[in-house]
Amino acid sequence: MVQLESYLRAADNSGAKVLKVIKVLGGFHRATGSVGDVVVCSVREAVPNTDIKKGQVVKAVIVRTHKEIGRSNGTYVRFDDNAAVLIDKNKMPLGTRVFGPVAREIRDAGYTKIASLAKEVW
């Protein structure tokens, strides 16, 4: 579960390293977001000499959360960190690689490109 002011690790090679959540999209006064939700973030740390700069405002989709996710078959899955992948306005990832595992709910949310770029889909 990710809320305002939460820090996320960038799970792609777009140039961002650390993101800070400004807004959770998808509803009036929505407070929290989970895997598959789009958030507006500010870049807190970035790799030098890339298109993404520190302080830039970007959109990202959450791919991992430390808070467990309940599934319809009764199982739960949770990860070691909170992570997101930067996206453009067409829901396509800005980077060309996705690091670490991503939740299966990403594919169900319509981000098939992110799921196919990931090494592991849990």
Task: Write a structural description.
The chain is built from 2 helices and 9 strands; from the N terminus they run E-E-E-E-E-E-E-E-E-H-H. The two termini are 17 Å apart. It is mostly beta strands and 122 residues long. The chain has one domain (2-121): Ribosomal protein L14/L23 (Ribosomal Protein L14, Beta Barrel). The mean pLDDT is 96. It has a 5-stranded mixed beta barrel with strand order 2-3-5-6-9. A two-stranded antiparallel sheet has the order 1-4. A hairpin with a 5-residue loop joins strand 2 and strand 3 (16-24). 8% of the residues lie in helices and 35% in strands. It has helices at 105-108, 112-117; strands at 2-3, 7-10, 16-24, 32-33, 38-46, 57-64, 69-70, 76-77, 83-87.
Low-confidence regions: none
- What is the helix fraction of residues, given as a range? under 10%
**Main sheet summary:** 5 strands, mixed, barrel
Mean pLDDT across all amino acids: 96
The CATH C-level name is Mainly Beta
Name of the CATH homologous superfamily: Ribosomal protein L14/L23
- Could you tell me the strand content as a percent range? 35-45%
Helical segment tally? 2
* Order of strands in the sheet with most strands: 2-3-5-6-9
Kindly identify the CATH topology.
Ribosomal Protein L14
Terminal Cα span: 17 Å
The ordered string of helix (H) and strand (E) elements is: EEEEEEEEEHH
Taking all Cα atoms into account, the compactness measure Rg is 13 Å
CATH architecture: Beta Barrel
Number of DSSP strand runs:
9
Overall tally of structural domains: 1
Gross geometry = globular
Subunit structure: Part of the 50S ribosomal subunit. Forms a cluster with proteins L3 and L19. In the 70S ribosome, L14 and L19 interact and together make contacts with the 16S rRNA in bridges B5 and B8.
GO molecular function, one term: structural constituent of ribosome
Keywords: Ribonucleoprotein, Ribosomal protein, RNA-binding, rRNA-binding
Function: Binds to 23S rRNA. Forms part of two intersubunit bridges in the 70S ribosome.
